[in-house]
Amino acid sequence: MVTIRSMVNGRPAVSAKPRLSLLSRLRSRRWAAYWMILPLVVLIVGLVVYPFVYSVYLSFENKAETKFVGLQNYTKLLYYDTFWLVTGNSFRFTLTAVFFKATLGLILALILNNLPIGGQRLWRGVSLIPWVMPLALSSMGWWWIFEPTHSAINWILVQLGGSPKPWLSDPFWARVACIVTNIWYGTPFFMIMYLAGLKSIPESLYEAAQIDGARALQRFRYVTFPMLSKLIGITVMFSTIVTFANFDIVRILTRGGPRYTTHLFGTYAFNIGIEAGHLPRGSAVALFMVPVLGVAAFFILRNIARGEE
Amino acid sequence: MAKITRREFMKGMVAGSAAVAGTMAVPGVVRKAFTAKATLNIGLWNHWIPGAVDVHSAIINEWAAKNNVEAKIDLLGPQVRDIRTIASAEARAGTGHDIMALGPFDSWAFVKQCEPLNDVAEYLEKKYGKFDSLGTYLSYSEEDKAWYALPAPMGSHSYPMVSRMDYFNQYAGIDLPALFPADASKRDAKKVDGWTYDVFLEAAKKLHKAGYPFGNPISETSDGNDWLGPLLLSFGSQPMDREGNITIESDGTLAALEYLKELVQYMPEDIYGWDDASNNRWIISGKGSCIQNPPSAWSVAKKDQPQNAAQLWHHDTPKGPAGRFRGALFYNFIMWKWCKDKQAAKDLLMYLLEKDQQWKILAAGQGYDMPQLTPMYAHPVWQEQGPPPGTIYNYIIRGDEQLVVGGYPAHPIAGNSIYGKHILPVMVAKATTGEMTPKEAMKWCAQELEMIAE
Q1: What ipTM, to 2 d.p.?
Q2: In which element (H, E) is residue B303 found?
Q3: Which domains does chain B have, with CATH numbers?
């Protein structure tokens, strides 16, 4: 950059920068960053912010979308038995599925971490298959396994001398089927996150613990678990958001049945909004998810921020 | 003498003379092509019968070529809920196709964006007689005096009973082809009158005992609506009237629920988890003696289990204390308000719904599609299909059944919600599984109906 220097009262004058044209400014490094994130911003505004704001607006309208009704769509839901059934379903589904995914993911990660390197690669790849498979496709596979009349799993149960279970036609077993499918799909995510965390724990910590006479369980309790705890927190919160907003599994396995007992907020919002033609109330149902997801997002961001500190 | 075109007719001669209408209807009249090339984007229902949609597309393309119109056809579905999602997106965006084939109730979700088609509907009714009452219910707005959709045959279907002749004969002592012969003139009205839900219950008991139960879903599925809605009506149970008054808490509903509580004892236990294909598999496999379905189950059985298909007979539903009702899902065409070439779109719709074209479409559908204009019932396709010969003859209404859709007679906007939320099957499921007493289930249903009303 060319600067013109002159002496004013014996001191160097302030560097006089030539005025940059708008084009040059836009080409500057600082602006380049904005340009590069612009497509992402456009995508987020178009596909997240706009639909969100629009659904909030919709939720304040009447069924025909001709009249502003304030919070009526929300308040009506609160007096509605099915809404509370759906709320219970959503929490039950999320808490149970996330607990089992986190536990199984940790167990799998510990097993994989102790395998020889060659075997580890193979099993790591195999374990990831459920997670990389399109969920709609794998849910179809699970539907075939649980199909009410010709269930593959019932066939196996009968062959083993057991009795068939009313998968998908009884509320308890239908909930079990949805949760099992979600666990099967989501466990590899936990496993791979924990595995990455395990790899980053310095070996010296284990050696020190071993010198102090720590047994395997104590090494896990006092070294592994504390070192993974932040990662566990973030993973659990992240999975809570995704699980709570689940749609595909219930939609394909049970369509919310039997008797609405497997409907989640997502599937129920779709049912009311699209299938039953009451878009404003469907939006209101979907927006009831926001506080829960917001709390989860708050904790995730706080954990990340603390980690950065 | 100058030939009168549809275009000219539509421009102001709707109320014109029958003579003009007659001239219009003459097949083969060469119509004046559009001077400037018009473009029509058409969303057509993708028929599951191989080749049927090709016939439909060919008819459109042939018309387009003759009339200087560029027709762009998109095949949608065959799941109507997928088409509804597309239509919903188009209605929000205010752009998309010009003409779309929609499933039952769907046009009511988009009434504000649909162009009234009164001139076309009135022309067709004048020429062929009134549309079926269900077609009118689903396409015509009494409040606005407007046809927001045009009842169409392609995709339209009903839910007769599909029964095993051999099992009914052997275990229940009922000769179905004799009761419902493949010739309406040979029907014995007295015998048909005796085909009631009580008689059916006795038959269901016997068939269950023999190991071949009657099977239909009582779950959140379309088929659940399509047999339970009519059954409830047969007992005098109506969810809501057209004015929006909730009428489900009635003696008729109680009677129907009590009846169903008994009937489910002779049905498979897993019907509460069945989907739309479950009853098809039930009858195709040979495990079941009876379901309620269009001829699609029989059609698949013809390929996969021909020995079972040869024993299937389609026939009327039983009669209840309040009448005989059969479920049906009628499709229709809509024209979006943003269509630029409205005249061309109307001309095409009118052409498609003329007898000559419907005739070809009905033949291509191999008997699956149901016309909504009674003169089309004379088509031979239902007589010709088999084996067994004449099995789907009674798929078309030949007796005293009234076609209805789950949610009827509520206003179609409310009916759409009743159907879409599967309120009636869930009420029945709650009452018949013991989760609730019939009275509690009725109350629960009333609360659901209140919620969808506004």
Answers
A1: 0.84
A2: helix B296-304
A3: 6-155+330-384 (3.40.190.10), 158-328+388-453 (3.40.190.10)
